[in-house]
Amino acid sequence: MTGIMYILILLSLPFATVTGQSTDGSVCRDKIDNCATYGQTTCQKFQQWAQQNCRAFCQFCVAPPTTPVPCVDQLGNCQDYGATVCQNPLYAPWVMENCRYHCRQCSDDQLAIVDSKTTPPPCVDQINNCSRYGQVTCMNAKYKRWAQTNCRYFCRFCTQEQLLIADSKTTTTTTLATPLKPCADKIPHCDVYNDDVCTNEKYRSWAEENCPVYCMLCSTSGFIPILPQN
């Protein structure tokens, strides 16, 4: 009777997972050699396929310890490809080869280490008239790369910590001692010229000299605009 009770107790205990083996006793390994190229997102989105082909990589069983693939980008412009590349399974092999860190296809521990060592670009604008281009430039994918380089602070492309510091240093001062100068168009009918005259840096000096009111260049130069009389 004692022997039967002992057997029943053993059968009631849960099977422990042994490192390097699945609960069914089979070796915990991947059926294919390139599971890492598909990324961790594949494990949940295509779970049935992943359980059959990438059990160890997706941690459906406990595999022997291995050295993880470095969490680095092989390309210096991964951000130019946007989030779509990171999320589309069709590009998973390319992402894992070229933009692993940018697309966050590393383990949580790896990401925490790399994030702590990565220094973001300075939170400053490279040009003084970012406000002239407006927030549309910041949000338009066509100009985003330009905005990230030239108007990083204006477009709020900095980290939260950087923005807090930059905002605290940015103050608006009004100097009453120096009165603003009048600003007027020197030539009539500036509106006959193409808008490119106002926005193209090639014609900037001409526009400031001849059509500052029409081109809205008065406020940026500290002048009071004088509108033409009808």
TrEMBL record:
Residues 1-20 form the signal peptide. The gene is LOC111135278. Residues 28-61 form the ShKT domain. This is Uncharacterized protein LOC111135278 isoform X5. It comes from Crassostrea virginica (Eastern oyster). Pfam families: ShK. InterPro entries: ShKT_dom (IPR003582). Keywords: Signal.
